[in-house]
Amino acid sequence: MTIPLLLLIPLAASGITALARGRRALELIHILSALAGFTASLLLAAGVLANGQTSWGNGFLFADHLSALVVLLTAFVYLACAPYAIGYFRTDRINQAFGPDEDGSVQLAKIRKYYVLTPLFAFSMFLVALSNNLGVMWVALEGTTLTSIFLVTFYGRPTSLEAAWKYAMIGGAGLSMALFGTILTYYAAGQVLGTESLSALNWSVLAGSASKFDHTVMRLAFILILLGYGTKAGLAPMHTWKPDAYSEAPAPVAALMAAAVLNCALYGVARFYVLTVRCLGPSFASQLLILFGILSIAIAVPFILVQRSYRRLLAYSSIDHGGIMVLGLGFGGALGPLGMLLHMTFHSVTKPLLFFCAGNAQQQTGNDSLRRTPGGLLHSLPVSGPVFLLATLAVTGTPPFSLFQSEFTILRAGIAAQHVGLSILFVTLLVAIFAGFFYHIAQLVLGPPSDYPQGETCRWKTYPVIGLCALVLLLGFWLPAPLYSLISGAAGVLAVHP
Amino acid sequence: MIAQLISVIGQTALILLFSPLITGFSRTLKARLQTRRGPDLWQPYRDLHKLLRKGMVIPDTASWIFPATPYVLFATTLLAGLLIPTIAAQAPLSLFGGVLAVVYLLALGRFFLALGGLDTGSSFGGLGSSREMTISAIAEPALMLAVFTVALGAGSTNLSTVAESAVGQSWRFLAPSQMLAFAALFIVLIAETGRIPVDNPATHLELTMIHEAMILEYSGPYLALIEWSASMKQMVLMTLLVNVFFPYGLSADGSPAGMLISVLLFVFKLLILAFAVVLVETGNAKLRLFRVPELLAVAFVLSALALISTFLFGGHGG
Amino acid sequence: MTFWQDPQFGARMITLMAALVLVLQITMVAQRWLVTNIRAFAIQSFLLACIASTIAYYNAATHIYIAATLTLLFKAVLLPVILQRLVSRIEIRQEIEPFVNVPLSVIISGLLTLLAYVVAEPLQAQTSLPGAAGLGRNTLPVAIALFLIGFFMMISRRKAVTQVLALLSLENGLFLAAISLTYGMPLIVELGIFFDVLVAVMILAILVYRIRETFDSMDVSRLSRLKG
Question: Would you list the domain boundaries of chain A?
Fold first, then answer.
């Protein structure tokens, strides 16, 4: 029963929010829905750990370890963003980011948009991970785009419109490729299973008979799926919408997109990866994944090195991490998928922290430029400033932080798969990214005090930062056993031995 | 041998005598659609008769090309007419050449007509010739492509074979390659016969005229030959369209009853096509000269698509 | 058996309509007038609905009728009306100077059609089913051509509305592909896709309107402030 519950909670939250009056009511409903969603996702994960797969509605929705992990991470990011959003929009009101606003009605309209659309956004992401039918999964992923377009145009600046337009167009074109890939998969499956029943697009059914699918069709289908869902995940060279959308959206939305939507898109790729590997053997899919992975990491390097805005810097870091995860999947074997999913988990914890710090810094200084900010955030933001630096170290995979472990796992998978040259390239690129990233953020955070307002402005913005920071530090040293077994179970779904 | 001779003579007579009637029919119909009374059906015959009796004025500057042009034009057009199947699927001179010969005979006539326009050195003639060649430079590839498409479907460039292969295939004209090629050829027909979106046969307005500008210096019997050739060319192209795409009633046997039905069907098909052309003429305004290439480019694209769709749809395309 | 019950006749009609769909797609590439483009899209969608219902008729398949009806209602009527209103509201009628000029665009479209044929050939090899069950299988190249030409239109046009139309015609290609390969997707997926397309067009229409208000133009090449 947790599966329909998970979908109902955000839907209900969105509906109630649309009707509720008053800012406090909106905030309360949002926090409660986030808590309820996270609890339900924990229940689902516990259920999957205890009983293996569960399904609902004649196998229409289903959850194995992989789905449960993605749902858990999505719900976690959603939960982390909920309190932060409250503080973020309150500060926006104080900064008059919405223009003149005497009685708060403009702000109320704006944040109502956020509080209505974000649960729908979360609903789409849950549906991506929980739908068994690959067609429904596509519909849900398109839903994540549709629900987030107006979150990107939240501030209504000309640049936000530009970002939203690119996001909608590139995303739409990309997803149409993925739909084509889904149609081709359905066709391949229909030749074996017959298209009369609804189940011919159900992943759990397809996975069982994928070895009998037509090779030509599946090859074309996987290329289209990788291009399509890769666009949604922001893999190079389809990544161009990402820096724009991430830098224009409000920080909590950007955090959701960077940490949760990325997982969902890669989840879509992973599901088709399993089918493709069972049909064609591992080498075809792996080569493509490695190609896109390395390309994404490599493309992030120059843009990170010469970046002028730290919000865009984070977007390029997201492209880089998407590339790392895809690379892990591409390396394959037993370690590759494990490394990918560990990385996905740690990234989902670390990335929101970075976006929160960046959001705090941006609201404090009024811009997100690395050039115009003279440095010294350490003094004006006594909490977010140092944490920003710490999170930078964490996200670039510096030991002892957790992302180092997952990157190391992926490296071991690469060497195990005898991609030594690629592994060396991988490490080199990571070092370059670390250098660029750390240089920029250190410039921003360290330095003598500047004349920006002193002190953290809102505890709603500070507490999530402190909490996430503690969690990041904790994960560096201790991974809870149930979480690890969930991740390794999910890796078991992906590790296909032909 | 005798039968061959009869068919040659018969078709020559048919084309010579029937073609002015189509011109007359088009003019009358057009006048009626514009709620004018207009000339009656036989006016082109009277015009030809009148012109043939008149004297001629030949410009001093004209060389041998000027008097040669009407004869060449007349001969090539008539010859082209003998290469296409009209009443029987077997064209009288079908062994002599296929559709390429038809296209090139018409092109040869046009070439001489353009030379004749240039020959006198008058500015109108030059203007008409240059316009005519501009248009034909685009119309001809479209015509060729469309014709090739049809030939590809039939497996031969011989028009008799093409027409015969189509007999008995009831839904053949629904094939996209046939439809698209027909549409392309229809546009080419309008351009080649100088009809309204492209040229206006009824005007001597210097800004727009094409065909009339070329033949401005001709008079008397020469003009009659040229006008007659224009009628025949129109009939040749129309016959090409109706008999290649809708080869119903092409009599296979030589029985008199069958022949009669064939003749009636043939006339009926030609009149319907002429009606369609007149409808286009009345429904549209003349295009600016610089827009004409765009229209012909459409014809070219259509025929290219026709060619593509012969193989694009597997068995059903051609 | 009257002639229209003969699957052979159905196959002819479907092929012809598919060819017209392709012609309309190339019309959209070659046309500058937005209103003409919108109408071309509406007719194209109408023809797709006809193809789907022809297949449904010969195979007596109800779920294809539903897909055909949805296409007719949404893509042939509702979306063109929305776009038409949008165009009359923002008062821009022509595509001025596309990035690639018209003759070249048409030639590229032709080449893309050939590419579609090459791609579709290996996929079609196994689809030669006899009689009614094989109807419409030969439209796959057209579907892929619509998809590719739609993509090309998206990147070669400046006007936001044209880009939306390109996205929609690309979607039409996918619909035809689904019809041609598998006789449509499962109903729930089909409904979801239609819902998504409808919502997407509404959102894009709002975006176009706001871009027009903000930039006093809907030339997307003006959207170039975000770099690096």
Answer: 2-494
